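name: query_chain
kind: protein
chains: 1
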Amino acid sequence: MSGKSKNSFEVINDEIHIYGENWSRVGLTTYRKDYYDEICSKTWSLTNRKDLDKSYLKNSDLGLLHRYIMSKWYGKKILDEMSEKGYIVEHMNNKHMDCRISNLEFLKKAYNTAKAQTFDKDSVEMEKHIAVNIFKDFSTGCYQLTIGCNDSIIGFDTEGSKYYVVAILLLYDCDYSIVINDAENILRLYETEGRIDISKTYACDVKIRKAIDINLTEKEKNSAIVMRDGVPYLVLGTEKAYLNSVHYEKGWRPPKE
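structure:
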C-alpha cells in the first residue's frame, strides 16, 4: 500500500518497513491497524541524508515518527507531560530509523547524552564479542537486556557439565536508567576481564540459551551457515557470521514471589 505517499511500505512480522528512494536503510515501526493507513498515506523523509546515524524519519503533518508512535501507544497526554518534565523519546539501540515500540522509551535528556558517550559507543565496539541490546516489552512494562555471545562463552550446569552459551536474557522490572547502567557494566567487565557476571545485575529473572552441539565437517568449519535436516544454523566464532542482536521474549513476566 502506498496511497499518495512517495514511500513504499511492507508489513513483515508485525513490523511496518518503510522504504524511500535512494535510502540505504529501512525505516521500521510496529504495525497496528488503527494507524497503519495514516502512516502509509504520508511521505516520510530523512532529517539528515548525509549522516544516517543521526537521521530521523519525519513527515510535515505527523512530525517525527518516533514521537508519533509514542503518542499512539502511550497517549498524547503522557507524551506531552513527559516532554514538559524534560524527558525525550529515546531509541534504545541508538538507531534512529528504528521506531518499533520495543525500541522506544522516555529518558531524561541528560541521561540520554551520557548514554550516547558510554553504552551507545561501547556496545558497537564490543558487538563482535558480545552483542548487548535493551528492549521494552509494552505488554508487560518490563525491560529485557539481551546478550548475544559471539565469543566462546562457557557455562556449567548444576552437575558441573560444561556447555557453550549462545545468548543470555535478563528481565528487569525497574527504572530504565538502572538497566542502562547494568548494560554498560556488563560491557566494561567483559572488555577488561573477559567474563560475564550476571549475579551483579539488578535483573529479576534470567534465561540462558545453550548453543546446539553440531559436528562440523572441515569444509563447514569456515562457513557462516550450515544446514541440518533443512534447518539453517549460524556458525559463530568465525569472522564470517556474528549476532548483532538477540530479540526479546514477548510476554516474559517477573517470577511470582
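note: The chain has a mean pLDDT of 92.
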